[in-house]
Amino acid sequence: MDGKYKKLVLGLVLDGVGMASLLLPGLGDFLDVLWAPVAAWCMTRLYPGKKGRVAGIIAFVEEIFPGLDLIPTFTLMWVYTYLLSRTKGAQPA
Q1: Is residue 33 predicted with pLDDT exceeding 60?
Q2: Nearest-CA neighbor of 28 among 60, 71, 65?
Q3: Is the pLDDT at 86 greater than 80, yes or no?
Q4: In a domain, 90, yes or no
Q5: Per-residue pLDDT tens for 54-68?
Q6: Ramachandran class of 38: left when φ > 0, alpha when ψ lies in -120 to 50, beta otherwise
Q7: Residues 68 and 62: beta-carbon distance below 8 Å
Q8: Nearest partner of 14 among 54, 41, 33, 51, judged by Cα
Q9: 45 lies in a domain?
Q10: How far is residue 21's CA from residue 64's CA, in Å, rounded to a whole number?
């Protein structure tokens, strides 16, 4: 499996972890406070550089605010990186 598709699978898993808190009313909000910095850190490791830092901030905000868990931030970043961006290192699928 190509490295970019490994990132896609990992991103789908991480998005699933973030969305799982919706299944636990009350407790889920507390778990989001714990998950938000982890999600931000994971994003910066998956996508290094300025784009990764910006995406990490977005992932943190998305996880920390209630109700935004439905946004698949990791998957959207993969789509941006590999399908929409024309920068060096990003190759079309």
Answers
A1: yes
A2: 65
A3: no
A4: no
A5: 999 999 999 998 878
A6: alpha
A7: yes
A8: 41
A9: yes
A10: 11
User: Which CA distances in Å does 32 have to 5, 41, 73?
Assistant: 26, 14, 14
pLDDT of residue 93: 45
DSSP H helical ranges for 1-93: 3-20, 27-46, 50-64, 73-79
**Domain range enclosing 54:** 3-20+29-84
Mean pLDDT of 32-44: 95
**Given this model, what pLDDT does residue 28 score?**
80
The total domain count for the chain is 1
Q: Does the residue 89 lie in any domain? A: no
Asked if residue 93 is part of any domain, the answer here is no
- Residue 86's CB is within 10 A of a number of other CB atoms, namely 7
